[in-house]
Specification:
- The structure is a single chain.
- With 191 residues, this protein is of the alpha+beta class.
- Helix content is 19%, strand content 14%.
- A 3-stranded antiparallel β-sheet has the order 3-6-7, with no helix packed on it.
- A hairpin with a 4-residue loop joins strand 6 and strand 7.
- The radius of gyration is 28 Å and the shape is elongated.
Length: 191
């Protein structure tokens, strides 16, 4: 329980206390040919790496070390609350939803198969639907939590982009609602 990785090792024992499943009587490694021995040793290294990975991160390692490289994805540092990072992109906010073509969105940075991410040779995809007040969008990432890393990015999406995401999620076009009080009363009691 609470684990994502279980291993069966017919050639070893559980002297390490890793909780691996072993045969009642371990088999002899001499039964393996050269390639099988190499694969077995690689898997043992992988399982040893998984133990170290779990101790450092608290998560199970589900890759195959060393054949598969450790997962890497750039992540801004979060050394203290309120720490800030700045990122700049040419992908400025959409101010209106680009038209669709046959029910398929032509926009939002997606490219058609074999096509370009830009239309009509523009340097930024679908520039005519974007904020043109600046050629770049500057974003500030503010650290809200160091562990796990949580960043706040104000003004990350424009109103048009938020509406598009909501429409994709709900399948409905969202509109502003209004409140109406019948009888002209303000709803507050008074007397």
């Amino acid at each position: 329980p609470g684990r994502s990785l279980y291993a069966y090792d017919p050639y070893g024992n559980d002297e390490t206390g890793r909780g691996e499943i072993h045969a009642a009587r371990p088999r002899d490694l001499g039964e393996l040919n050269g390639m099988e021995t190499l694969n077995y040793r690689m898997q043992r290294r992988n399982l040893n790496f998984a133990v170290r990975y779990h101790m450092e991160t608290g998560r199970d390692w589900l890759g195959l070390h060393p054949l598969r490289e450790r997962p890497t994805h750039f992540m801004w540092t979060a050394e203290k609350f309120g720490q800030r990072h700045w990122a700049t992109t040419r992908e400025t906010h959409f101010l209106e939803t680009p038209p669709t073509d046959g029910g398929r969105e032509e926009s939002w940075g997606q490219s058609a198969v074999g096509g370009s991410r830009t239309d009509d040779g523009e340097s930024t995809p679908l520039a005519r639907y974007r904020d043109s007040s600046s050629p770049y969008l500057n974003m500030t990432l503010t650290v809200l939590s160091c562990e796990p890393r949580v960043f706040e990015i104000r003004n990350f999406l424009s109103d048009a982009e938020v509406e598009h995401v909501l429409e994709l999620a709900t399948g409905e076009t969202m509109t502003r609602s209004s409140t109406f009080v019948s009888g002209g009363g303000g709803g507050g009691g008074g007397g």
